[in-house]
UniProtKB/TrEMBL annotation:
<dbReference type="Pfam" id="PF08541">
    <property type="entry name" value="ACP_syn_III_C"/>
</dbReference>
<comment type="subunit">
    <text>Homodimer.</text>
</comment>
<keyword id="KW-0443">Lipid metabolism</keyword>
<keyword id="KW-0963">Cytoplasm</keyword>
<feature type="active site">
    <location>
        <position position="265"/>
    </location>
</feature>
<feature type="active site">
    <location>
        <position position="123"/>
    </location>
</feature>
<dbReference type="Pfam" id="PF08545">
    <property type="entry name" value="ACP_syn_III"/>
</dbReference>
<keyword id="KW-0511">Multifunctional enzyme</keyword>
<comment type="similarity">
    <text>Belongs to the thiolase-like superfamily. FabH family.</text>
</comment>
<dbReference type="InterPro" id="IPR004655">
    <property type="entry name" value="FabH"/>
</dbReference>
<dbReference type="GO" id="GO:0033818">
    <property type="term" value="F:beta-ketoacyl-acyl-carrier-protein synthase III activity"/>
</dbReference>
<dbReference type="InterPro" id="IPR013751">
    <property type="entry name" value="ACP_syn_III_N"/>
</dbReference>
<dbReference type="InterPro" id="IPR016039">
    <property type="entry name" value="Thiolase-like"/>
</dbReference>
<feature type="domain" description="Beta-ketoacyl-[acyl-carrier-protein] synthase III C-terminal">
    <location>
        <begin position="250"/>
        <end position="338"/>
    </location>
</feature>
<keyword id="KW-0275">Fatty acid biosynthesis</keyword>
<comment type="pathway">
    <text>Lipid metabolism; fatty acid biosynthesis.</text>
</comment>
<keyword id="KW-0012">Acyltransferase</keyword>
Amino acid sequence: MSTSAMTSPVVTDRAAVITGIGSYVPPDVVTNEDLTARLDTSDEWIRTRTGIATRHVVTPGTATSDLAVEAGQRALKSAGSAVADAVVLATTTPDQPCPATAPAVASRLGLGGAAAFDVSAVCSGFLYGLATASGLIAAGVADRVLLIAADAFTTIIDPRDRGTAVIFADGAGAVVLRAGDPQEPGAVGPLVLGSDGGLSHLIEVPAGGSRQRSSGRPAAPEEHYFRMRGRDTYRHAVEHMTRASHEAVARAGWRPPDIDRFAAHQANARILAAVADRLEIPPSRRLSNIEHVGNTGGASIPLLLAQAAAAGQLTAGHKVLLTSFGGGLAWGATTLQWPDVTAI
Ligand code: ACO
């Protein structure tokens, strides 16, 4: 097994500060009843094992960039300025394998000419994207970064696989980050990131990349779909999110009781509860929208933050812990004090 872990040393006084946030979910909703009509499953199984009741899905013809543009527009509006020097898009479902999707998104947002590229870290894409944006700002490469996390996850889900079809869904969330002071509200705190590629087979799309293409063997259609070994993944998700969270909280100089809001990747309600229990964060401080949006991959944390802020569950001054886990395996955690922003 290969493992790696990275924490962000404080090397600069320029922090990335959240100054705008927006989100978007496609209008079509799939209920558990819709799924039970075509899969060997039940509303009771889905609710008790995952906590999901409904999810939003794209309709034919809608791609990740369409979701990303909607969320990006809202974040820029929330920030009160349509300016960004860089557009970073975290996604597992790019519009096509080449080129990256971010340049097209930037162009459609009127940000043509800005640096634009994709970040691939599956469900940890938003936290890896925050690290990327923070680095661009700290290094003086950019003063303002639009970070979007978007996934049309259902486009890689096998509709006949009850193990994944009931969980994954589509959506997008975005934040605008500006250069600021590490101590001000909205400043992204110390980031803890890690990966374990020795377990990459637990979450994968087997075909479509250079490994399969260079084999000369045509892929079976089902190899283009996402596969997840749920039970094995579960254990690693709880372990790594708990450990990364403890480390991020300590590096911020906080203690778990200081955390006002726990915002974890919405993988599964039971995983969220297990991690929050281990961190001794009471239920009243746990943000969750998985019941209504399912697991939206990389989009899930900014979508959660935007919806919670819009609903008044997350307000200026709250000390927030973010943590994620997903394919790679890749995980992360960070902290921030919620800024005075209007989520759109
Ligand atoms: N309806 C009914 N039965 C089902 C369904 C379903 N939708 N799906 C699976 N089952 C069955 C299985 O076939 C199995 O039956 P068997 O015992 O006869 O073989 C039984 O339920 C138990 O299956 P498990 O997969 O062990 O069920 P579990 O309780 O572990 O729940 C789940 C599955 C929800 C996927 C859970 O394991 C999980 O959430 N894992 C972690 C997911 C995660 O965190 N992923 C990382 C982030 S996402 C990302 O990176 C893209």
